[in-house]
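Async update (no meeting this week)

Hi team, since we skipped the sync, here's where things stand on the single-chain job. The sequence we agreed to prioritize is pasted below, unchanged from the tracker. I ran it this morning and attached the output directly underneath so nobody has to dig for it. Comments welcome in thread, and please keep replies under the output.
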Amino acid sequence: MAKVLIIEDEESIREELEILLKNTGYEVVRTENFINAVGDVEAHNPDLILLDVNLQDYSGFSICTGIRKFSNVPIIFITGRNTSIDELQAFSLGGDDYITKPYHPSVLLARISTILKRTKNSERAEEQILIHKGLTLDLRSYKFIYDGKSEELSKNEFKLLHYLFQRKGEVVPRLDIIEYLWDNDVFIDDNALSVNVTRVRSKLEQLGVSDFIETKRGVGYRI
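Output:
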């Protein structure tokens, strides 16, 4: 369930938004302490923010600026200010959408849904890609990519590199890698790991990457 934070000073609109969102299945939190609105964003960690521009003695634009110092959470401005200059400022400060009052509830919900879907897809895509020292490991395609060139990996080559990426900077013991690659009780010749490391290094060199996998003699490997 996505969490939406409402920052709106008109009580009737605040309640209207809260009912609308809850009835649609969203978790809703709201703030009325506008001087600490940025702190409330940190505390609640919402998935999306509905932010008014004119907030009694405070400005939604200033709050947006404060939020963007630490978060990329989607922000939709909902405001009675309808000039192109205001809209342009909202986007230039990092707003994701700009809706003027009075808004149509169905249109507002559609735009919230669209932004949340786009954000989730973006996060999912980022989770599928790991990058270290300029080398990209694409978890979807079993490929690694460097300088615009790519190489496919076998299942064990991919698992080996993926395991090292997850523990980058650490010296990973050979035994740990062997247990991870061949997750069974059957004895695996230690040489099998060396063969896989050699194959991965060879593919890295074909892309122009050298010394990516460091050997700690008698211990293990590190990237």
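Quick observations from my side:
DSSP finds eight helices and 14 strands in the chain.
The radius of gyration is 25 Å.
Reply here if anything looks off.
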